[in-house]
Amino acid sequence: MNMAKAVTKFPWRTALVTGASAGIGKAMAHQLAASGVDLIVVARDRERLNQEAALLKGRHNVRVDVLAADLLDPAQLLLVEERVRSSTNPVDLLVNNAAFGTNGDFYNLPIDGEQREITVNVIAPVRLAHAALGQMLPRKLGTILNISSMSALLPGPRMATYAATKSYITSFTESLHVELRGTGVSVTASHPGFTRTEFQERAGMQGKVDEVPNSMWMSAEDVAAESLRAAARGSVFYVTGRSNSFFATVLGILPRGMRRSLSKQMRQ
């Protein structure tokens, strides 16, 4: 069953989605628009964003503002923060989706690339969440959806920085959840597993992922649908897909040493 086919009525009026030009972010934008949610779509590629915005407005008759920004650039990130912080047409849902990964032994990877990965995967979501809370808390209304990963749940040899950034996002989300209890604002971390997007190719993993059985893959549309529904429910920790959920449960009861051994076997 493709869960993305059923249109869900989401509770938000305006959502800002980073990484909205492709993959999970693009799927979320389409599903939110189908529910009547106005959008601010953020990504580096203005041309792709403009194409998606025209499609979304034409198909769903919603407002779609394009905010082309490279989250690696402090000045451009600040522009996104200012939009999230604005009390004019306030953002009810912030989706921190933009991220990328690198693949290889850490000591062989260019350190500047690893730092850029940390900036996009951690610094940008933290700054955007801070900006969002500045206008959500006074209104006692709002949702932040952070896209983490199954990689957050066990060590990630040859993707050490990526796994660490996603572990940060999960821990950050759970900490905020405790802080925000009773405020009317919720924070959700969604943990997709293998998802058919451009991520693998960009991370240089195409050869390795070809070995992953089809049964372990999810579509971006299904991941988006499950993640948005979890956020609408106010879930703090959510794993997409039944097989991923089962695997996460097993990981949760394994000693750390066994998780390290398992991660090593999975990367061989």
TrEMBL record:
Stretches assigned to the Ketoreductase domain: 13-193
Span of the signal peptide: none
Pfam family, any one: adh_short
SMART domains linked: PKS_KR
Keywords: Oxidoreductase
GO cellular component, one term: membrane
Source superkingdom: Bacteria
Listed PROSITE patterns: ADH_SHORT
CDD domains, sorted: SDR_c
InterPro entries documented for this protein: KR_dom, NAD(P)-bd_dom_sf, Sc_DH/Rdtase_CS, SDR_fam
Keyword presence, Nucleotide-binding: no
Any GO MF annotation of the entry: oxidoreductase activity
Keyword Oxidoreductase among record annotations: yes
Similarity comment: family membership: Belongs to the short-chain dehydrogenases/reductases (SDR) family.
Stated name of the protein: SDR family oxidoreductase
Biological source species: Oleomonas cavernae
